[in-house]
Amino acid sequence: MTHELVTALSPLLTAEAAAEAYASGTEPADLEQAVWLRLLERLDAQDPPHDPPGWLRRAVRTEARRTRRTARHETPLTGDPADGAAHDPELLALAAARRHALRDAVRRLPGRCPRLLDALLSPNDPTYREIAGELGISQGGLGPERSRCLGCLRRLLTPEVAAR
Known about the structure:
This protein is mainly α and 164 residues long. The chain has 7 helices and no strands.
C-alpha cells in the first residue's frame, strides 16, 4: 500500500511543494522531503491518512508555515565562523610576537634598510615617491634597494624560522 500511495501522491506533492516553496523561502524539494517524512512516520505508526490528497495539501502548508517561522527566528550568518580567530587571545598573542620579531629583525638590518622597510610597513601607506623623498634616494632606485633589503631580511630570519 505504501508504494501505491507514494506513486499516487507524488505528482500532487510536487505541485503543492512548488506552489508553497517560494512564499516560505525554501526549496520545493526540501518541502517534499519533509512531507514524505511526515507521511512515512504516520504510516509507520499505523495511522494512514483517511483523505491522502487532503492530508498532503495540509501537510505541505504546515511545513511551509513551520519553515517561515523558523526562518524568522534564525539569524543569518554574516561572516565566516573561522573568522572568530580574530578574537582568539592565543592567536592574537602569536601574531603580536611575529610582528615584534619582524620589527626586531628589521632594526638589525644594515644601512638604510631599517628606515626603508619601516616606511614600507607603515600603516600610513606612503607612496614610493614619498618614501624616496624621505630617504633621499631616487624613486627608480627604491625597487632595487627594497629587493636587497628584503634579501638581507630573509637571510636574517631564516635561522630563526628554522630554529622554531
